[in-house]
């Protein structure tokens, strides 16, 4: 990595992938830099970056590896709009997000047990619309005591939360996109509270041990897209989703064939009530969705499909 790169004083955009230490690079010379993206192409070689990167006067967008130690600036940084990733640990002082009041996108990588109040100043990020949490070596993750008031997109990964904590997320008034990745939530049963997710348009559940999802159209009244990936134990899409008028796409990847069958039956049921509206598409990704249920015979699968169809008839007739 040539050190002379910092002599390009008019540089506005810099993206690089390296395993070199950048700790001694004189990035402060890049006073016109707006976007800085730096990643390591070897996971075992975390990057070393100078801690004053965020002090660059024109910087608005910063993307670095999760395990790079980045701290919030000591002075208010009004221009910063994107920050991935901010690493926080119990040994650090509580981050003061008032230092970056105009953030619109934020990714937080957590290592070490944090109290629920540790990220309490997130409530000051009034312009934040997109927030991601990913957890490293932590025994238990707690949702923050407060969320940015105008949050629209939330992603959780490796947080291992119980499904009852979803009630807190359901209270977010402007949430439109929710992505639950790699055991963000754990447990066999999810029954949303009555308040549901009033403005949620897209929901992703990936790598989950969920078995029973007791939900209806009342819980997700404006849902448009549902994506289920590697949900090996979930055997049925909630049949009452057939009454969600806005639902137009279900994507299933590496799931039980009974899950595909239930989605197809919901699609068929919706087709008869659309009256000119776009149909519900069911997209199967990968070949594993076609595999039969391991612990059940084909006869049992047919019985399950008939049960779903019977319940659908109760909904519409």
Structure overview:
The chain has a domain at 152-317: Alpha-Beta Horseshoe (Leucine-rich repeat, LRR (right-handed beta-alpha superhelix)), CATH 3.80.10. The chain is an alpha/beta fold. Helix 2 (257-271) runs parallel beside helix 3 (298-316). The strands form 3 sheets. A 12-stranded parallel sheet has the order 1-2-3-4-5-6-7-9-12-14-15-16, covered by helices on one side. A two-stranded parallel ribbon has the order 8-10. The protein has helices at residues 166-170, 257-271, 298-316, and strands spanning 13-17, 35-39, 61-64, 82-89, 105-111, 130-135, 153-157, 161-162, 177-181, 185-186, 189-190, 202-206, 212-213, 225-229, 249-253, 281-285. Helices cover 12% and strands 23% of the residues. The chain starts with 12 loop residues before the first strand and ends with a helix.
């Amino acid at each position: 990595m040539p050190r002379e790169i910092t002599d390009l004083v008019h540089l506005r955009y810099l993206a690089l992938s390296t395993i070199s230490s950048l700790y001694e690079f004189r990035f402060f010379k890049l006073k016109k830099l707006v976007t800085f993206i730096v990643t390591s192409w070897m996971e075992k070689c975390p990057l070393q970056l100078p801690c004053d990167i965020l002090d660059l006067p024109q910087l608005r967008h910063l993307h670095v590896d999760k395990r790079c130690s980045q701290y919030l600036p000591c002075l208010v940084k009004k221009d910063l709009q994107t920050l991935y990733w901010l690493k926080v640990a119990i040994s650090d002082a509580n981050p003061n997000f008032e230092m970056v009041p105009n953030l619109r996108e934020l990714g937080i990588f957590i290592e070490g047990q944090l109290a629920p109040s540790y990220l309490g100043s997130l409530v000051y990020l009034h312009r934040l619309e997109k927030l991601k949490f990913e957890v490293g070596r932590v025994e238990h993750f707690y949702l923050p005591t407060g969320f940015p008031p105008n949050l629209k997109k939330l992603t959780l990964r490796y947080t291992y939360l119980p499904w009852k904590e979803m009630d807190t997320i359901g209270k977010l008034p402007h949430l439109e996109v929710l992505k639950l990745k790699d055991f963000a939530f754990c447990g066999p049963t999810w029954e949303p509270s009555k308040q549901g997710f009033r403005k949620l348009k897209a929901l992703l559940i990936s790598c989950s041990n969920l078995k029973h999802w007791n939900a209806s159209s009342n819980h997700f009244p404006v849902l448009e897209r549902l994506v289920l990936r590697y949900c090996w134990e979930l055997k049925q899409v909630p049949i009452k989703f057939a009454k969600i008028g806005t639902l137009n796409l279900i994507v299933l990847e590496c799931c039980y064939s009974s899950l595909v069958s239930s989605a197809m039956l919901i699609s068929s049921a919706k087709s008869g009530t659309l009256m000119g509206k776009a149909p519900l598409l069911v997209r199967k990704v990968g070949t594993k969705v076609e595999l039969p249920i391991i612990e059940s015979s084909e006869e049992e699968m047919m019985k399950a499909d008939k049960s779903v169809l019977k319940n659908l008839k109760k909904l519409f007739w």
